[in-house]
């Protein structure tokens, strides 16, 4: 029998030749993590587009950009999602049922709504046709947007993958924060030439980076052994550094323009911040997928917590003596 | 609906002949899953998968050889079925869980959702596959191919209630004969998946056979997971409102 040494020295456990108990996620790179990134950016842009409508003088340049970002993110993301399927030609089967027990079914309907509304809002803003319908669509994006950025956390948490399921409290905040950082970064790039317009997107980027960092730190602390794949994943460490560094640079980029002197320094800092935050948001999504795979492939993360649960519940020795 | 049908796999009489693996492939037209020499035991199949619907595990201990034919558990609360976004996975009139190959679009969600690591996607075909408990044979009044082929009746098929009674009697016999390591696995409707339609009599802890000791259907946490996502979404909305209206 395979007696294996666990990652924490004191916990020994049995397994079948060290083979995984559960199947690792088969989702591919770059499709699935890029979809997570694009869906997040689309969601955070959608939220901006909706809030723009509540401004005293809406239809500003930022509002149009937010609508475009929401539409592009949703449309491109859908492309990656379809390419990810084993049978892409059957992607419409997602619309066969409306199934509340399946986060992917709920997500498909949500993505359909987000894609339709954001395309309508963006088309209206660009062409000037049907401004009323465009405004209504943009306001509706305030509901679909934030859900779009966080539902993917429910999707991956509703699996047997220990690093995902056990992180079900923190993952929505990690993804939501990362979405705001990613969308804020794109907004900063779009406002490089007009620093006076950059305050909202800069704040969004800084808040998103802070939220992502905090959620990640809490997650790694609370999960203990199960968080090991996150701690060992180089992309997760890179994501943390890029979020912290990018967030700090974004905050700093506000200072020169306030003093009035930094016509070059401010935009340079903003561009560096945007690059770091975008890279960080991408690293987060790739890192979460890789950590999930590693968590599924090592039977320790499946067996040890389950065994501890049984022991704690006094059910550890049912049916006969232990080995 | 007919009564719930199931498998009782009594591993104490399994001789590791793998007739179940072969019969399953023959009847269901399951392709080969690679010819791998694993060099760990007499088991070169490895694990259940898209093209392995019965898997005979082989464990050599100092005292004995343990052999066990693993299969899809046809859970009472099946995670694969819960998360399937197309309705390709469905519950049959026999209370078993089956994939409709003409509906599955290969999204792959069922694969990491299964707490037993049973269902998988065939990469050349793009769809998810697993044991159907020979749905077609059951419709014709026949028992599944693996149970039919098993030479020692280690694999027993029948109404789940009858199988559970038979298993209790077998367990009592083994315990009376001093085989106190014998235990049932997957028989308890109070477990994390509501009990299995295919349950087992094991001679060691489940993880020794590659089975999870306390499997859970994660969809049972879905309301709370949506709750956390909603709080995160509201946090995003509140924070974004602040970026627009706060500050200056």
From TrEMBL, chain A:
<protein>
    <submittedName>
        <fullName>Polysulfide reductase NrfD</fullName>
    </submittedName>
</protein>
<feature type="transmembrane region" description="Helical">
    <location>
        <begin position="268"/>
        <end position="288"/>
    </location>
</feature>
<dbReference type="Pfam" id="PF03916">
    <property type="entry name" value="NrfD"/>
</dbReference>
<keyword id="KW-0472">Membrane</keyword>
<feature type="transmembrane region" description="Helical">
    <location>
        <begin position="238"/>
        <end position="256"/>
    </location>
</feature>
<feature type="transmembrane region" description="Helical">
    <location>
        <begin position="106"/>
        <end position="130"/>
    </location>
</feature>
<keyword id="KW-0812">Transmembrane</keyword>
<keyword id="KW-1133">Transmembrane helix</keyword>
<dbReference type="InterPro" id="IPR005614">
    <property type="entry name" value="NrfD-like"/>
</dbReference>
<feature type="transmembrane region" description="Helical">
    <location>
        <begin position="64"/>
        <end position="86"/>
    </location>
</feature>
<feature type="transmembrane region" description="Helical">
    <location>
        <begin position="173"/>
        <end position="193"/>
    </location>
</feature>
<feature type="transmembrane region" description="Helical">
    <location>
        <begin position="137"/>
        <end position="161"/>
    </location>
</feature>
<comment type="similarity">
    <text>Belongs to the NrfD family.</text>
</comment>
<keyword id="KW-1003">Cell membrane</keyword>
Automatic annotation (TrEMBL), chain B:
<dbReference type="InterPro" id="IPR051555">
    <property type="entry name" value="FDH_Electron_Transfer_Unit"/>
</dbReference>
<keyword id="KW-0411">Iron-sulfur</keyword>
<keyword id="KW-0004">4Fe-4S</keyword>
<keyword id="KW-0479">Metal-binding</keyword>
<dbReference type="InterPro" id="IPR014603">
    <property type="entry name" value="Formate_DH_Fe-S_su"/>
</dbReference>
<keyword id="KW-0677">Repeat</keyword>
<dbReference type="InterPro" id="IPR017896">
    <property type="entry name" value="4Fe4S_Fe-S-bd"/>
</dbReference>
<keyword id="KW-0408">Iron</keyword>
<dbReference type="Pfam" id="PF12800">
    <property type="entry name" value="Fer4_4"/>
</dbReference>
<feature type="domain" description="4Fe-4S ferredoxin-type">
    <location>
        <begin position="95"/>
        <end position="124"/>
    </location>
</feature>
<dbReference type="Pfam" id="PF13247">
    <property type="entry name" value="Fer4_11"/>
</dbReference>
<dbReference type="InterPro" id="IPR017900">
    <property type="entry name" value="4Fe4S_Fe_S_CS"/>
</dbReference>
<feature type="domain" description="4Fe-4S ferredoxin-type">
    <location>
        <begin position="5"/>
        <end position="35"/>
    </location>
</feature>
<feature type="domain" description="4Fe-4S ferredoxin-type">
    <location>
        <begin position="63"/>
        <end position="94"/>
    </location>
</feature>
<protein>
    <submittedName>
        <fullName>4Fe-4S dicluster domain-containing protein</fullName>
    </submittedName>
</protein>
